[in-house]
Design goal:
This protein is mainly alpha-helical. A three-stranded mixed sheet has the order 1-3-2. The longest helix has 29 residues. The N terminus is likely disordered.
Length: 171
């Protein structure tokens, strides 16, 4: 049989006991506390390694929790929302990328540049613009949206135009 990392070929596991609602709430609160502590450390690390980005993020509130419409992280230009389960699964380098990524949405004022463009495509384009910028700085992305490497020096608006063209061509 095939086993994944850390799995045993013998099943010595006891059936998992259901948690009471109080235990679930305590567990969630403990995870939110841990992620909040990691974010505080990560903000300091960004300040030390990337002073400009670290300075900007030190001025933004970072909210930790779980929201149905925030599967990873997002910003409105004043605050950053981070999904607790998403952030908890990232390694320290990926966490820096996520915080820096949201910070650069603010720096580049992406929320004001959408105009009348398709929101989903524009978000994809702005995410790619930031992805290229941060990977050039040596940060490790937790995942990458599909793209063409030759887009790496384009603005979000130029990337948007190419994504729109691809969508129209059915690619």
């Amino acid at each position: 049989s095939i086993m994944g990392y850390g799995q045993s070929s013998q099943s010595n596991k006891k059936p998992k006991k259901e948690l009471t609602p109080e235990q679930q709430k305590a567990q969630e609160e403990a995870l939110i506390k841990w992620v909040s502590e990691q974010i505080a450390i990560d903000k300091q690390t960004l300040l030390a390694k990337f002073p400009f980005t670290g300075n900007v993020i030190s001025r933004l509130d970072v909210l930790v929790g779980h929201w149905d419409d925030v599967p990873t992280a997002c910003t409105n230009g004043d605050k950053i929302w981070v999904d607790v389960l998403f952030y908890a699964k990232l390694d320290p380098e990926e966490r820096l990328f996520v915080l820096a990524h949201e910070c650069w949405h603010v720096i580049l004022r992406h929320f004001l540049r959408k105009m009348n463009r398709n929101a989903e495509l524009m978000n994809w384009a702005t995410d790619l613009e930031i992805h290229f910028l941060l990977t050039k700085e040596g940060l490790k992305a937790p995942f990458v949206l599909p793209h063409k490497p030759e887009w790496s020096d384009l603005s979000a608006e130029e990337i948007y135009d190419r994504l729109l063209q691809q969508a129209k061509q059915g690619k």
